[in-house]
Amino acid sequence: MLELLRNFLSGKRLIVIGILLAIPFVFFGSTSFGTTFTSYGTVNGEPVTQTDVNLATSQVSQRLQSIYGEEFSLDDLDEEVSIELIKNEIINQKTMIAHAKDLGLSVSLQDAKKEIINLEIFQGDSGFDQNIFESTIRANGWTPDEYFVLVQESIALDRMIGAMSSIAFPIQSDVESLAAILETSRDINFIKIDKKSFVESQDVSLQEAEEFYNTNPFLFLSQEKRDFSYIVLSYEQYKDQVVIPENYIEEAYAEYLGNIDQQTQNRISHHMIEKSNYPDAATARLKILSDYEKINSGQISFEEMVSSSSEDLASKDALGDLGFSSGDAFPVEFEDEIIKMTLNEISEIIELEDTFHILKLTEVLQAEIKPRSEVEEELLNELVDAEAFALMQDDFLELESLVLDGFSLYELSDLVESNLEITGLQTIDTLQINNFANLAASELFDREIIPNKIEIFESEDSYAFVVLTDLVQPTVQPFIDVTALALEETRTEKANIFLNEFDGRAQKILLGEEMPPKLDGISKENYKSVKRFSSLLPSEIVNRIFESRLELILAHESINGDRYWTQSSNEVIPTAEELVEKVSQYEEFYNSELGQQFSGFIDHTMKQGQRVRLQNFAVTNN
Predict the structure, then answer these.
(1) Residue 475 banded pLDDT, cuts 50, 70, 90
(2) DSSP secondary structure, 44-83, as one string
(3) Predicted confidence (pLDDT) at residue 37 exceeds the cutoff of 50
(4) In the prediction, which pLDDT does 164 show?
(5) Which of 523, 582, 574, 566 shows the shortest CA–CA distance to 187?
(6) Is 310 exposed, middle or buried (0-12, 13-18, 19+ CB in 10 A)?
(7) Taking Cα atoms as reference points, which of 286, 285, 303 lies closest to residue 295?
(8) In sequence order, what DSSP letters do the residues of 108-156 get, joined into one string?
(9) How many independent structural domains does the chain possess?
């Protein structure tokens, strides 16, 4: 669960400031949480915001894609499962952040900015480049202020993990005990039967194979075959049908220029007076008026006033900085005032329900205006994409309705002028629907698929209408067609009969009471001074040998089917002097094991008394 801790304890400790930029946002065109609510509750008193939900969604998606492949999407999961995964991610991260703050490990905005300034990803020709920083952050879906918070939390977590790691220190006696166990050796006397070689060496006649075939006909059934007719509505096909309206580029570029002002980002700082800190609102107003006059007359700078007198403790250390807005992030009273201000100008006094404010416009980021030649292809692609999907969707909805009305697949293909294709009789291994790669053959071989009924399948960029037209049930294949298989199965059966009867003989052979048979695949060997990590025998067999008492004869079957009969003797435990040279070799291994145990302990401890108050979680498909 607490993956940052586990990563640290396995030797991968790092501040994740830069890595945050590599997390893709999955909420564009995929499963995401709606933004109807601005609050999602709290975890251990830490508020959960839309940013937290988006980041957790991205992290969960990335983790699942690392397991199931890049094509995997949260949309592939049930809605309840997706929500639960994202909730757990939020709970884990917020729990750690709350504990870091409880331990006094909070990080100032100034310290976070110092870390950011040194990051290589934000460097230009002359060091840190503000424009690179802004564009990189926004391209990844964050405002600078949101990113500052993420960095502050990341550093705090790193400090907490570093502090906790000092608790999980190795105990020398435990390392020595581990080294003693792993350095202990035994002599192993064993018989091995190489299953593959032994099976292949069995002498089988055609008559024996035919008798086996007649006795076990179910092993020689043919595969079921199915024939399908289908049509596919593909996004790529509809792209060719899109007609570009006359003067579209000119009008689209004009609209782009008209919207450019909406992308301007204004950064402000504020000086705040809290009404509740005064006997009444009038007294609070007199205080803000006095501060305003001192700033306006030059008696004190805006920044000095904020630092000495602002009653917004959250922004005071940052000289009142509130971050950026493109016109909708701040209260409407702020936004109305900002559009009247010029850079570094001080606003008139603004009154809200509980507070008074003086604003300063500290930074203006104008959106870059690209020439028409640069955006022409982008504008065309946007139109073609939108229109192609719309055309495909229109046809799909019409055909879906006609399917319910009883239309045939042939009539559907005629209506949309799409080729009616036929698979021919195919097995599950060879069946393929052209231009619809996401449809697994197993879906078409499902028992619920019945003849002459149109089945509809959907993918991200196509729809398939499929009808089962013919089905050939499995039948017992003629012996002449499966002779090779019958011979192979007969060899395997003969080998298994021998192996099942060999156990008693194996014990006598290991005790020296009988000679081993001279057959292919059977060998008798003796290894000296075998240790637990030896590769001379399969690991599962070596482990079982060392967990058993000396001289005991054990029968084993390895993962690949090979058979072993073993007897161990002459156990040698290293002396204290011998261990001195070996202990250092096992310290890293011990620390890794200790880290896993300690992370489990921390996981459990942090969850004690956990207060989870999550709300407003609802999934929407964008």
Answers:
(1) very high
(2) TTEE--HHHHHHHHHHHHHHHHHHH-TT--GGGS-HHHHH
(3) no
(4) 60
(5) 566
(6) buried
(7) 303
(8) -HHHHHHHHHT-GGGEETTEE-HHHHHHHHHHTT--HHHHHHHHHHHHH
(9) 4
- Structure pTM? 0.45
Looking at 110-114, 260-264, 445-449, 534-538, which range is the least confident one?
260-264
Give the integer Cα–Cα distance in Å for 96 and 163.
13
Residues 216 and 230 both lie in one domain: no
Q: What is the mean pLDDT of the chain?
A: 80
Residue 94, domain CATH: 1.10.4030
Residue with tokens 């999550």: 614
Q: How confident is the model at residue 22 (pLDDT cuts 50, 70, 90)?
A: very low
Do 324 and 410 fall into the same domain? no
Residues 120 and 64 occupy one common structural domain: yes
559 pLDDT band, cuts 50/70/90, is confident
Q: Hey, which of 313-322, 364-373, 583-592, 603-612 has the most confident mean pLDDT?
A: 313-322
Reported as a pLDDT band with limits 50, 70 and 90, residue 32 is very low
Q: Using the 3D structure, point to which of 340, 365, 390 is the last residue of a domain.
A: 365
Q: 127: which strand partners? A: 124
Contact yes or no for 485/210 (Cβ under 8 A)? no
- Among candidates 140, 21, 136, 31, which has minimal Cα distance to 81? 31
Asked whether residue 36 is domain-assigned, the answer is: yes
Alpha-carbon dihedral angle through residues 302, 307, 310, 311, given to the nearest 10 degrees:
170
Q: Which residue has the tokens 């905005």?
A: 109
Residue 13 has pLDDT above 60, yes or no: no
Burial (Cβ within 10 Å: 0-12, 13-18, ≥19) of residue 59: buried
Which residues lie across from 221 on neighbouring strands?
476
**Burial (Cβ within 10 Å: 0-12, 13-18, ≥19) of residue 391:** middle
> Nearest to residue 186, comparing CAs of 563, 581, 526?
526
Domain of 287?
Answer: 265-365
Domain boundary among 316, 344, 365: 365
Looking at the DSSP bridge assignments, the partners of residue 192 are 523, 564
CA distance 57 to 273: 38
